[in-house]
Amino acid sequence: MTTQVTLHGKVALVTGGSRGIGAATAVRLAREGADVAVGYVNGKEAADDVVRAVKELGRRAVALRADTGDATEAAEMVDAAAEALGGLDILVNNAGVGVIGPLDTLSLADVDRVLDVNVRGVFLASQAAAARMPEGGRIITIGSCMAQRVPGPGGTLYATSKAALAGLTKALARELGGRGITANLVLPGPIDTDMNPADGPYAAGQAAMTALGRFGTADEVASTVAYLAGATYVTGAEFPVDGGHAA
């Protein structure tokens, strides 16, 4: 049997693609046939490793450094990806930061940084991508289960930033639907990554909040992103990949 290459000939940009969910997504999209630009802000060696993994699958790849919290760099990365790989069909807004702590400890700098990366950067990258995409493009944004359920104190700023992505996604779906461009939002629960390992000090409590009682894997999130990259009649939707965190 042969496996259909669903994304053959497509070009994808994955922001925050050097590790965790972003790295798994970049490799999964390449496995489905896409050429991939890997965005990163720190960790050039890790980004280069992802590029090598994509190329080993027979696809083209490039690593692009940009701080998506910068008002110009988010859009510039989109343009750079399109120039390097000859176009852009799929944008995966994965880059994000989290500042968790009591409300009265959050500084203005914390607020600015989280909203700049998690909201403004996603908006500007999506805006730039929409200007570049042909008919049938895909915008897929990685949010958080905390946009649907905040299980305890300390997540005010982070949840605010991730909840904003639901409105952005629905509005993009309406604005770009006439061009066949879809926009969807993936909401991961606790996922085993180097930033939040399944054996970390707070892991047991997070796992207990899910219906399945465990952390998810980056590959499980990436499979949902790959589905949305190929789906033609799904837009403006939210996809929890959270093990039942919101159940």
Topology of helices and strands:
Blueprint: E1 11-14, H1 20-31, E2 35-40, H2 44-56, E3 61-65, H3 73-85, E4 90-93, H4 108-132, E5 138-142, H5 156-176, E6 182-188, E7 191-192, H6 203-208, E8 216-217, H7 218-230, E9 238-241
Parallel strand pairs: 1-2, 1-4, 2-3, 4-5, 5-6, 6-9, 7-8
Folded structure, characterized:
The structure is a single chain. Helix 3 (73-85) runs parallel beside helix 4 (108-132). The chain has seven helices and nine strands. The radius of gyration is 17 Å and the shape is globular. It has 247 residues and is α/β, with parallel strands linked by helices. It has a single domain (11-189, 219-237), classed as 3-Layer(aba) Sandwich (Rossmann fold).
Structure described in brief:
This protein is 42% helix and 16% strand.
Shape: globular
Please give the count of helices.
7
Largest sheet: 7 strands, parallel
CATH homologous superfamily classification: NAD(P)-binding Rossmann-like Domain
State the end-to-end distance.
38 Å
Query: What's the β-strand tally?
Result: 9
Describe the strand arrangement of the main beta sheet, using strand numbers: 3-2-1-4-5-6-9
Q: Estimate nothing, just give the exact number of structural domains.
A: 1
Question: So what's the CATH class?
Answer: Alpha Beta
Give me the Rg, rounded: 17 Å
User: In terms of per-residue confidence, which ranges show pLDDT below 50 for 5 or more consecutive residues?
Assistant: none
Instruction: Summarize the amount of helix as a percent range.
Output: 40-55%
Structural class: alpha/beta
Q: Write down the CATH topology.
A: Rossmann fold
Order of helices and strands: EHEHEHEHEHEEHEHE
Strand content: 15-25%
Give the integer mean of the pLDDT values. 95
Q: Which CATH-level-2 architecture?
A: 3-Layer(aba) Sandwich
GO molecular function, one term: oxidoreductase activity
Organism: Streptomyces violaceochromogenes
Domain Ketoreductase: 10-194
Family: Belongs to the short-chain dehydrogenases/reductases (SDR) family.
